[in-house]
Specification:
Elements lengths: L1 H11 L15 H7 L18 H12 L18 E7 L3 H17 L4 E3 L7 E6 L1 H7 L6 E4 L4 H7 L16 E6 L4 H16 L24 H10 L10 H15 L16 H11 L5 H18 L4 H14 L4 H16 L5 H17 L3 H17 L3 H17 L3 H18 L2 H19 L3
Helix pairs in contact: 1-16, 2-18, 3-9, 4-7, 10-11, 11-12, 12-13, 13-14, 14-15, 14-16, 15-16, 16-17, 17-18
Length: 454
Amino acid sequence: MRLLGATLLLAALSACTTVDRIETPTRTQVIEASLPPSKSFGAARPSPPARSNKNIAADFLSLHFALESGAELPVFTRFDEPITVRLTGTPPPTMQTDLSRLLTRLQREAKIDIRQIPEGQANITIEAVSQKQIRRILPQAACFVVPNSSSLEGYRRDRRKKKSNWTELRSRERIGIFIPYDASPQEIRDCLHEELAQALGPLNDLYRLPDSVFNDDNFHTVLTGFDMLILRTAYSPELQNGMTSEQVAAVLPGVLSRLNPRGDRVAPQPVTETPRAWINAVQRALGAGAGTAKRVNAAKEAAQIGQQQGWTDHRRAYPHYLLGRMGQFDDPEAAQRQYDIAKRYLRSTPGTEVQRAHITAQTAAFALAQGQGAQALPELNNAIDVMTRSENAALLATLLLLKSEALRQSGQIDQARSVRLDSIGWARYGFGSELVARSVSQDIAQAAAAGTGG
């Protein structure tokens, strides 16, 4: 999705700047000064979990007693409160702003006694390092979290020792989080949310969760209402370090009834575990190193496994979404059919508004290419509202650019221009100011070259 947004950005941003023509390429700093300022989100508006407490209890156990690799964790672990957090390295200003917002949410929504300290040994150290430094240790990771470490150098030295193994943990006292300072503001914030949440609680990701950042499909970018309930449950007085899964399971019904009484009124739904074969197929479909044909075959395999499992939830939809993404340039009409299949399953699954908004960005682009902007506007407006509430600035900027074109096709030229300008502020946060400014600079330089015959 971020690639689609960047492509649309390159195509549309030149229409959003007040600079017309230049004789030589403009420096990025000059262009950046002429652009609307970066936007930021206001107070969080997470939706409460829509599932039964019985389902949430099962999710809690799966999240806390296994790793993503499938390795089991013998006991429940968490920090003893109060919890301290320290930000080190070379963090950009937005990183501190977003960390402060996140800590406030954890205090207010998850009721965790957590605060930032300026110096000294903290329970959780967040070190801002370069993407290159992270790739040297974990080539596929955007950011990561490890036990018993406070610096990347320390983790590099101790990574093969017992102390760095999550399965050996019996309580949480010191954890390190490593996040790139040279990524876009949104990517940095997304890492803060997921890695800090894992430092505090769940270490597993579950594809079966439709409404959580603890899901490798990466549709959700900030902690959801479900995620905050999971964290609040983890720090309830009924739970203690060293409890077995059976002991935790025994107290969960009472804890969830107290914290989420509405969940007792929702009927539990049958849920099947996600087979490793489906996970492997999805990961192959997502693999950047594989050829298109292999990725398509992997997505088809995942779709077949979902059918064999009898799924009708978002997991059944996901491979069709991937097939649509992979085929939308070579066979856009076939891609639309894949998106329609995905939407059919998503509509029957509560809590999948974010997934549907992602698909809207794809289907609306197709509609605009057919000159059907007016028909796309209602769905675009709904998706924009969803992305505003879920705080995904990158996709929000993309949707706004699509809406701008839909308005232009509808003859609403002034409103289209206003929406385009609005999209730039979100793009600067979602994709990074430097990328946005460079895109505009390239467009202006190309226009200048065309105007002078160059």
